[in-house]
Amino acid sequence: MESPLLLFPQLNISASKDKSYYKVMKPAHKEEANKASKPGAKQKRNRLSLLLQKTEFHEDDHLGKAANLKKAASVSPEEAVKWGESFDKLLSQKDGLDAFTKFLKTEFSEENIEFWIACEDYKKSKTTHELLPKAKTIYETFIQKDAPKEVNLDFHTKEVTSQSIQQPLISTFDAAQSTVYKLMEQDSYPRFLRSDPYLSLVQGRNPSRPAMRRRSRSFTVNDFQDVRPDFTIW
């Protein structure tokens, strides 16, 4: 009888090849899996670059706050005391208006001072041509229902103002402006005078250097300076 090896030579050769193929491919497969699991050099560089950018952003933010500290010190205690004499006095002073605007931002009611400023600008219009577009913008921004910065007005005041929009006069917003003014004078202004940032200015205390906190939104006296109302209608 002939040997099984001679009868089935292909079977043995195939088995040998399969076995060899398995031994060769297995390490290669493992190597590819290891490569996939390890972050490449390019990926590492990208992560490092992102980390550096975030660090620079926070450092710039901190430096900006430090610069504001120096400017805050320029408000003298005597000037700050005058802000407490009357609400009119506060609004008539540039630094006082800026400080009060910033304070209202912390209470999420800055739309009141922005509306008041818009009305003051409106009354400076020199021609009737200027009145209609300005009146329409103020109405759509602050007065109409669901306006983006709607102020708190009683029904009668809102109705009177709405009816005069079609043919606006210099006095169109007088009633609404007076209502918002009284609201700020009786409500927000007293709280502003009791706030730590204002008391620090009155007592002549220099605000301490802020701690290196990340993404801090705490309200400090250095935030008083270089603040302008967000009202950008004109």
From TrEMBL:
The keyword rRNA-binding does not apply. Keywords: Signal transduction inhibitor. InterPro entries: RGS, RGS_sf, RGS_subdom1/3, RGS_subdomain_2. One of its GO terms (biological process) is negative regulation of signal transduction. This is RGS18 protein. It comes from the Eukaryota. The keyword Transmembrane helix does not apply. Residues 86-202 form the RGS domain. It comes from Nothoprocta pentlandii. Gene3D superfamilies: 1.10.196.10, Regulator of G-protein Signalling 4, domain 2. Pfam families: RGS.
